[in-house]
Design goal:
This protein is α/β, with parallel strands linked by helices. The protein has 66 helices and 52 strands. The strands form 13 sheets. Strands 21, 22, 23, 24, 25, 26, 27 and 28 form an eight-stranded mixed sheet that branches.
């Protein structure tokens, strides 16, 4: 399209796209000349009333209008058209240059106008490739009236060749029939005598005038394009779909042999045509059209070959046009133009051409139906993809000519396959002619050499030779290399890698790729055999030809090309149908541009590294899903049953005896949890950061599983990881029972040697002391635990003894020991409440000041409500008034009477005295009244007697009463005149008087006593009173009484006010207290609300029971001190209570406790060795004896035979499959790689109880699932912070839409996403200096690794060595100066006799830098052979590795080469290789954690040169931090990395005490969460600690196990050269002087240089070594025939009995039967009949004897087991329980032997042989039962017994092999 943009007057922008050239065919097909016309308003205002007009020469006028175009908007103008005049286009004979005029108006004002050029082409002119090339189809004119003549001529040829002249196009569906029709047209046109005319230059681009069919036929002349269009016109006329091919400077024609149509009108993919024309497809035939003009006799087939040859050159091909597709796209043929009266004449006859086509070649076609590739993607499919390497490094996908490949000159390679499949040998010859070079794409094309070499090469094939493209020298070198490499691969890997590749797929990575790739299609496994004179032959291996599965999967995954139909390769008579397979490929790739199948062959080395695993998964889809972990991975959710309880080392330590688990190697608590978890049958993840003992833990897990009778599969991809575990297993004597079959070493010889070794193991007895030692050790452990628990477990108070001691020690104040709350009240919460009070008290004292100095001190209102405070104030005021009155009255009374009354006691006395005086007054008045009527003597009468008598008189009857009254009154006359009416009054007066008198006496006694108690004399005051009243008794007494009553009344008022005040206050103030403070209180009462704060707090403290605190505070003690004293007293109570209640604590002494620990250490070491012995004993006992006769056909015999003959004729897999029962018993543990698992273990075999994966972070899930499916439970061991799976050369094999089912990075990550149970190894052991792991721990593990400090903790062992080097970024990408510096350091170390003891490793950031260092190092070492010997042949040779391959390695000293840095221009790139990638920080973590003793970082790069603004990669950030750490020793800050330190007061006190003794101390030394509580150094050498003190604080308690506390921690510290001692809290609490003395003694020993005593003697006194116990082994006779017992025949005296008198029911015969059974039970009834008959002298057991035996047996126990109804009998059921023996020799026939004995003999046979053929059992079992041979009857009975055992699930019979049922 052409287009212009013109802007005018800044008002409008016009954009127009249109065809620059137009011809009739375009217009005839309805093509729009104007594709797009857009107007855009660029003015600053709207445009109104717009019009657009187009006009021009030969064009029709066109216009349109619209009302408005807003500013800034644009509009697509669709109504306007550019339309040439049809009549003009049909008439012009030459192209006409024209133009059209475009005008835009607004409001009739022209705002835009422009002329545009356009070319009108003639009727027959084609516009070329530049303008709609598909319109070439318009010049294919099947309706031309001259074509029927050609058709008629062609019919004659067709009939000649086929017997039928019918042009039936595609009706027969026979491609060869269609091909014949095309050939017939070809020959008919050749008959026309047309000659060739050269086309104009570059016609394919610019176009040309076309001679239509009639013109060519009339003029007998045409160009390549003219003839192609002519042939196409003829083909279309007979109903065949033609295509036109356009090449550079040339054109050809083609025809579809099937009614196909290409999806597009134009296609530029030459490979598409080649694929469709290839034999097998034959969907298309191509034709060199100019062949019809040739004078030479060019046959149709030659014209076809010529066309195909031209198509070989991709660079010449431009495109092809599918004519039928164009018709469907409305491109119609040009209509026929009639010149004269409708008549056509032929002016020329043309040149006569000879018809050369005699026959038409028939081609085969395969009707293919490829399966739908649209199946949903599954997890399994993804796994399968990932197991195949899709990188271009894989020569299965990208085969390149070189040393690994020998290319052959290839013709009809299917015949070569036939010959090789027939077992024929072939030699390889050099190139037959001149040296041939591959094409520009790097591949040979034999078809180019067909003319010269095809006949010769075919002849060579018949003579068993294959011609190569290589010269003789090249061929010899290549054959030698291939031979050696193939042999090495076969020897080391056990896998063939040499194949004959048949057919190559030419493919491209993307549609835009220019470089083609070549991948073999078929791979025929061959051997290369070396003959004399360096001659080599190849022959087919005894393996099947295979499809390149990697290629197939690549096509499926990356290109959605499905070739599943080739899962089974199609066969022909000699092998596979090669042609058909190629056809399938061609059909599958038909849509792929430029792709093709190249029929070449070559000999090459191809690696199928993971094919075994792929096949394993691919072939076992359903079986994989049966595994719960695999099913969980597929469904992405954990399908395991939830664990009831998590494994906790603390619980194990406390509750499990040592013999519950077999742990032969040292273990810490985190490892212990993993080991115990591994025995639960649950799957879990074990995270193992660097140096945390993963391999040791795995070894212990394996050992414990074997101890529990389980089978283990240990899988590691790297041999190095597997070897570490294997060596540890060997050290604990388990190597014979652990079969190693890693793929790199799995040879038949290696396998059989291991089998032979295990069969020869020495059997030993289980150590007798094992259980006893376990119990003893368990008790020792529990005792140590009990101290820890007693010290740290919380009591009912919520506090531990340790808490209390720590708190008690922390308080400096004197403790309060009195008025403490009861111990039941003292709890953690209570103490917390007390502590909280201090701050509140201080705040209150800030308000009120010191309480005892406050003006209102003593006044304590019950609350601070106004309704309380106001009455108090009123009472105080009233009290003040009353008190003033009281004082005045008191003063008056004292002045009057001179009693000197002052105190309240005086007032009380006064009150009592006034009462007494008042009583005297009443008495005296009564006295006067009585004496006024009666005599003095009446006062002495017995009033009570007279009163009783008077009552009696009144109670009498009338007359007696009369006389009695008279008598009574008469008796009273002595006292005066008394009348009856006055008797009772008189008695009352006298009685009252007498009572007054008594009362006054009591009062007098009380007042005297009271006065005495008050310290004054009542008598003196009484005398003063008497003096006062003098002789004025009545008046003065009355005055006194008045004053006294007035004073006491006021005092009573004061008392009442006091009580009222008490009701409103807490303090319950006494009156005197009130009087004392009254004035101050009243004058300061306005401060009562502030004062109340203290009143309320005081009340709260008292309620809490903290009265001593209140007292001390009110005495002026600071609140904090007062509370501390109170708390200290309570802690003391709790401490004494805890110690008193626990006998161990009462008896605790640190020295004695240390002795217990030392014994525990020794016993632990001893038991560890016993565990090895017990485990060995168990496993060895399962190995069958091989010294005795072995049953032929048994699994043992099979294995022994293979060992003897080297496994001749059997593979490892077949041998393993033949001993399925024996192998698990011999080797319950297998050490394998994922590949060897798939290769050697059948998925149908018995599952392993445990599958353990090591280095799981590096293992893709796809590689792991096969091994996982072989087990019941999975343990994934790895570290997600370390290396991921190698990502180099890998490609993403999962589409975005499949991401939700894709795997994570590794099996470790996948299991983490399943939320499997996780365990973490936390204790780091590798680094012998904490600084070596500090960076990793801080940056990547959150300081959760428990690392151990060093005695020189202040010195860093990670050092930076600056190198003045240059990073050669542009060329070598290396740093030579760093390399030299490292090599120099290595030479220095190797030359030093002390330094050379430390192994060395070199880690480089890149492989290039590593290679440079290695080259420099080898060059340096070559100059000094002695140093080279030290470097390379030491226990740990020097290694030079890079970030990608150093994981798993470690050395004493690591030299780290950064490599990167400033280039020669001083610029520093932020590209640090793999560190910049995702996971780069994980690589760095691996690299910086390899050193044991020291790391030296050689770096040109400085931390300051790393600009994190230019890179956000975590790896780069980590590198900067690491360089800073190496330079400064300071770690980058990471928040929240350590726990809070244990604030241990005892630590502080010990430090203070030692400081006073002149030592330097540091507390809590260490960079991780493990600390040495106190590290001590001397002032002379402060840089090095001489003693580490561990306390029993929080860390001691949080340490989960006794072993951790008492063995692991101290032992590791001692390994790091620490001198260690532990100080116990109770020791320090009870006697700190003694404890300090012990510390000082240890320090003196340290200063003197004496080594710390270690109890090594007993620890090393017993070490189990399997090689040294052979003399104590158990003989085979003990191992075999364990159930055999001698037969003890009962001796019965023979007593002849008369047959006629024989009574079968006589009890004596029953007793005889029982006597026999006492010695011979069990016994059958028939045997007992025989024995009884013999005992009574009968010749045989007749009916009566049988009756006698039946009668005797009726009361005995019948064994339920029987064969053919033959039962055996026991005396009682108890005797029959758990009977496991058989007896031999015996006098019994087979039918007389109890079934139970036959059963036991059979079971022993199977147990000894493990598995053997069923038909072998009778012979061996008969021999055990005492028979010399197995006759028919014996075999029958034994076989029936075997059937009984099978029915009862005692044995399992599989494929004729019998094994015991394993539950």
């Amino acid at each position: 399209m052409a287009g212009q943009i013109i802007k005018l007057n800044d008002k409008v922008v016009v954009k127009i796209d249109y065809l620059p050239s137009v011809n009739y065919s375009m217009m005839n097909s309805g093509i729009e000349v104007c594709n797009s016309l857009v107007l855009e308003n660029s003015d600053d205002k709207d445009l109104c009333d717009l019009s657009v007009e187009i006009n021009g020469q030969y064009l029709k006028d066109s216009s349109c209008r619209f009302e408005l175009l807003k500013k800034g908007q644009s509009v697509q103008v669709t109504a306007i058209k550019i339309e040439p005049d049809f009549s003009v286009l049909s008439e012009i004979t030459e192209a006409v240059k024209s133009s059209f005029h475009l005008v835009v108006k607004s409001m009739d004002d022209v705002i835009f106008e422009q002329d545009y050029p356009i070319t009108l082409l003639s009727y027959e002119e084609w516009a070329g490739s530049n303008v709609m090339p598909e319109h070439i189809a318009a010049f294919v004119v099947p309706n031309n009236p001259l074509l029927p003549k050609i058709k008629l001529s062609a019919a004659l040829f067709l009939e000649k060749w086929t017997g039928s002249a019918a042009f039936d196009e595609y009706q027969t569906q026979d491609r060869n029939r269609v091909r014949a029709q095309v050939a017939a047209i070809y020959e008919a046109l050749r008959s026309e005598g047309i000659i060739y005319s050269a086309p104009p230059a570059s016609f394919e681009q610019t176009g040309q005038r076309i001679r239509l069919a009639d013109k060519v036929l009339m003029d007998k002349m045409g160009t390549c394009l003219d003839t192609s269009l002519l042939i196409a016109s003829c083909l279309e006329e007979i109903g065949i779909y033609p295509i036109i091919l356009v090449l550079k400077g040339h054109a050809m024609v083609g025809a579809w042999l099937t009614p196909n149509v290409f999806p597009h009108m134009v296609c530029d993919d030459a490979s598409y045509l080649l694929k469709e024309t290839a034999d097998g497809n034959n969907n298309l035939v191509l034709l060199e059209s100019t062949a019809i003009t040739s004078s030479e006799s060019i046959s149709f087939e030659e014209a076809v070959r010529s066309a195909l040859q031209k198509m070989k050159d991709d660079s010449q091909f431009l495109y092809f046009v599918d004519i039928h597709r164009c018709r469907l796209g409305n491109i119609r043929p040009l209509p026929q133009r009639i010149e004269k009266d409708g008549k056509w004449t032929f002016a020329n006859k043309g040149v006569e051409h000879q018809n050369a086509t005699e026959t038409i070649k028939n081609f085969s076609h395969y009707d293919l139906r490829l399966e739908d590739a649209g199946k949903p993607t599954t997890k399994q499919m993804i796994w399968e993809r990932k197991l195949l390497d899709f990188s271009l490094r894989n020569n299965l996908l990208n085969t390149r000519l070189g040393r690994k490949v020998i290319p052959f000159i290839s013709f009809e390679i299917e015949h070569l396959e036939d010959h090789l499949q027939a077992g024929e040998d072939y030699s390889i010859t050099p190139s037959p002619g001149k040296k041939l070079e591959p094409n520009a794409e790097g591949m040979y094309d034999s078809s180019q050499q067909a003319t010269e070499y095809q006949a010769y090469v075919s002849e060579l094939i018949r003579n068993h030779k294959i011609a190569s493209y290589l010269t003789e020298t090249e061929l010899q070198n290549a054959l030698k290399h291939v031979y050696r490499t193939a042999r090495t691969s076969l020897e080391e890997n056990g896998a063939n890698s040499l194949f004959l590749a048949l057919g190559m797929l030419k493919w491209y990575e993307t549609s835009k790729s220019e470089q083609p790739r070549y991948a073999p299609i078929l791979l025929l496994p061959v051997d290369i055999v070396r003959r004399s004179n360096n001659n080599y032959i190849i022959r087919k291996r005894d393996e099947e030809i295979i499809l390149n599965i990697t290629l197939v999967e690549l096509l499926k995954q990356n290109f959605r090309i499905n070739l599943d139909i080739l899962k089974e390769l199609p066969k022909d008579e000699s092998g596979v149908d090669v042609k058909l397979i190629f056809t399938y490929f061609r059909r599958a790739i038909i849509e792929q541009k430029k792709w093709d199948v190249i029929e070449e062959s070559m000999l090459g080395l191809f690696s199928f590294n993971k094919f075994v695993m792929w096949n394993d998964i691919h072939s076992n889809a359903d079986k994989l899903k049966e595994n719960v972990v695999v099913a969980s991975l597929i469904d992405k959710q954990d399908k395991q049953e939830m664990a009831e309880n998590a494994v906790d080392a603390r619980s194990i330590d406390k509750e499990s005896a040592p013999m519950d688990y077999a742990i032969p190697l040292d273990v810490d608590s985190s490892q212990m949890e993993a080991i115990v978890e591994s025995g639960t049958g649950r799957s879990f993840i074990l995270h193992g950061p660097p140096g945390t003992g993963k391999s040791q833990t795995i070894t212990n897990m394996i050992a414990n599983a074997l101890y529990q009778g389980k089978r283990v599969l240990f899988v590691a991809e790297k041999m190095a990881a597997l070897s570490v575990v294997q060596s540890r297993l060997e050290k604990i004597n388990l190597a014979p029972f652990c079969l190693e079959l890693h793929s790199n070493k799995a040879t038949k010889k290696h396998f059989l040697e291991q089998m032979d070794e295990v069969l020869k193991v020495t059997k030993i007895k289980s150590p007798e002391e094992y259980a006893q030692r376990s119990d003893e050790l368990f008790n020792e452990r529990k005792e140590l635990i009990s101290y820890m628990e007693a010290l740290h477990h919380k009591s009912s108070s919520g506090l531990s003894l340790y808490d209390c001691i720590s708190e008690h020690l922390s308080i400096k104040e004197d403790e309060i020991s009195e008025q403490l709350p009861p111990k039941e009240q003292i709890t953690a919460d209570y103490i917390a409440q007390c502590r909280e009070q201090v701050e509140q008290i201080n705040a209150i004292l800030d308000i009120v000041g010191q309480p005892n100095q406050h003006a209102l001190y003593g006044l304590e209102p019950i609350d601070n409500r106004q309704e309380t405070l106001d009455p108090i104030h009123t009472i105080l005021q009233e009290f003040k008034g009353q008190h003033e009155k009281f004082a005045s009255q008191l003063e008056k009374l004292n002045a009057t009477v001179s009693l000197n009354l002052k105190t309240e006691k005086d007032i009380q006395w006064l009150k009592m005295f006034a009462n007494m005086i008042s009583s005297e007054k009443e008495r005296d008045e009564l006295h006067e009244t009585i004496l006024s009527s009666y005599s003095e003597d009446i006062l002495k009468m017995d009033v009570n007697a007279y009163s009783r008598e008077w009552e009696e008189v009144k109670s009498k009857w009338f007359l007696p009463r009369y006389f009695a009254k008279k008598k009574y009154l008469k008796s009273l006359q002595v006292y005066g005149q008394v009348f009856e009416s006055g008797v009772e009054n008189m008695l009352k007066l006298v009685g009252d008087y007498q009572n007054f008198k008594k009362s006054l006496k009591v009062q007098a006694e009380e007042i005297i006593s009271y006065a005495h108690s008050c310290g004054f004399s009542h008598q003196e005051r009484y005398e003063t009173y008497i003096q006062f009243i003098g002789n004025q008794t009545t008046g003065r007494r009355q005055e006194f009484l008045y004053d006294a009553e007035s004073l006491t009344a006021i005092n009573q008022d004061l008392a009442c006010l006091t009580e009222e005040l008490k009701g409103l206050t807490i303090s319950q103030n006494a009156k005197d207290d009130i009087i004392t403070h009254l004035g101050v209180w009243l004058s300061n009462y306005n401060g009562i609300k502030d004062w109340y704060h203290w009143v309320d707090k005081k009340r709260e403290l008292k309620q809490m029971g903290a009265l001593p605190v209140v007292t001390l505070i009110e005495e002026g003690v600071i609140p904090n001190e007062a509370m501390n004293g109170f708390l200290k007293g309570m802690y003391h109570v709790l401490i004494e209570t805890a110690i008193d209640e626990n006998e161990q604590l009462r008896m605790f002494n640190g020295l004695k406790f240390r002795q217990k620990i030392e014994k525990y250490k020794r016993d632990t070491a001893r038991f560890q060795e016993l565990s090895k012995e017990e485990l060995y004993s168990k496993l060895a006992s399962r190995v069958p004896s091989t010294s005795a006769a072995i049953a032929e056909g048994s699994e043992i015999s099979i294995l022994k035979r293979n060992i003897a003959n080297g496994g001749r004729g059997n593979s490892i897999r077949s041998i393993m499959d033949s001993i399925p029962t024996l192998l698990p018993r011999l080797c319950p543990c297998m050490l394998m790689s994922p590949i060897s698992v798939a290769q050697y273990i059948d998925l149908n075999a018995e599952k392993f109880d445990l599958v353990i994966f090591d280095e799981a972070s590096q293992m893709p899930t796809s590689e792991a699932v096969g091994a996982i499916a072989r087990g019941k439970a999975l343990i994934v061991v790895g570290d997600s912070k370390q290396m991921p799976p190698t990502s180099f050369f890998s490609s993403n094999q999962v589409d975005e839409e499949e991401a939700d089912i894709d795997d994570m990075e590794s099996i470790l990550d996948d299991c983490i996403t399943l939320s499997l149970c996780e365990h973490q190894l936390n204790w780091h052991y590798r680094s012998k200096h904490e600084s070596l792991i500090a960076f990793s721990n801080s940056q990547y593990y959150g300081n959760n690794l428990l690392t151990f400090p060093s005695i020189d903790d202040h010195v860093a062992k990670v050092t930076l060595v600056p190198v003045n080097g240059v990073y050669d970024k542009g060329r070598t990408r290396s740093n030579p100066e760093e390399s030299k510096a490292i090599v120099s350091e290595i030479i220095r170390r190797l030359s030093d006799t002390e330094l050379q003891k430390y192994s060395i490793g070199v880690v480089a950031f890149s492989k290039v830098q590593g290679d440079l260092i290695e080259d420099d190092l080898l060059e340096a070492l070559d100059k000094n052979p002695q140093l080279k010997e030290i470097a390379m042949n030491g226990k740990e040779p020097i290694f030079v590795k890079n970030l990608e391959n150093v994981q798993g390695d470690e050395r004493d000293v690591i030299l780290f080469s950064i490599g990167y840095g400033a280039d020669k221009n001083g610029k520093v790139s932020m590209n640090f290789g793999p560190l910049n990638n995702a996971g780069g920080e994980r690589r760095l973590n691996v690299a910086v954690s390899r050193a044991r003793y020291e790391m030296m970082v050689f770096s040109t790069l400085k931390a300051s040169q790393i600009d994190l603004k230019r890179s956000n990669a975590k790896g780069v950030e980590g590198l900067k931090g690491f360089l800073e750490f190496a330079e400064t020793g300071k770690l980058p800050f990471v928040s929240g990395t350590t726990h809070n330190l244990d604030t241990n007061v005892m630590v502080e006190q010990i430090c203070d005490a030692l400081a006073r003794k002149g030592y330097i101390t540091e507390s809590f030394v260490g960079r991780s969460n493990f600390k040495v509580d106190i590290a001590v150094s001397t002032r002379e050498h402060p840089e090095k600690f001489i003693l580490g003190i561990l306390c029993d604080g929080r860390t001691y308690f949080e340490t989960k196990t006794t072993r951790d506390r008492e063995i692991v921690q101290p032992s590791v510290l001692r390994m790091l050269n620490w001198r260690v001692m532990r100080v116990y809290s109770i020791d320090w609490y009870e006697n700190r002087e003694r404890a300090l003395k012990q510390i000082l003694q240890e320090l003196k020993l340290a200063e003197s240089g004496k080594s710390q005593s270690e109890p090594t003697e007993e620890t090393a006194s017993y070490v189990f070594d399997a090689d040294k116990i052979k003399e104590s082994g158990i003989s085979d006779s003990v191992v075999r025939n364990k159930a055999l017992r001698p037969y003890n025949e009962c001796e019965i005296e023979t007593k002849n009995v008369d047959k006629d008198s024989f009574n079968p029911y006589d009890e004596k015969y029953a007793r005889t039967i029982k006597r026999i059974l006492e010695d011979e039970q069990p016994a059958t009834e028939s045997y007992l009949c025989k024995r009884l008959a013999k005992a009574i002298g009968f010749g045989h057991a007749g009916a009566n004897v049988q009756r006698a035996v039946s009668f005797a047996l009726s009361s005995l126990y019948q064994d339920p087991l029987s064969i053919d109804g033959i039962y055996s009998f026991w005396l009682d059921e108890k005797s029959a329980i758990d009977y496991k023996n058989y007896r031999s020799p015996s006098p019994r026939s087979i039918t007389e032997i109890p079934t139970i004995e036959i059963v036991n003999a059979i079971k022993e046979v199977i147990k000894e042989e493990f598995s053997l053929p069923k038909d072998k059992i009778p012979t061996i079992a008969a021999r055990k039962l005492g028979f010399s041979s197995a006759g028919a009857k014996i075999c029958d009975v034994i076989n029936k017994t075997i059937g009984l055992l099978e029915k009862n699930s005692v044995v399992v019979i599989t494929n004729g092999m019998v094994t015991l049922y394993q539950e």
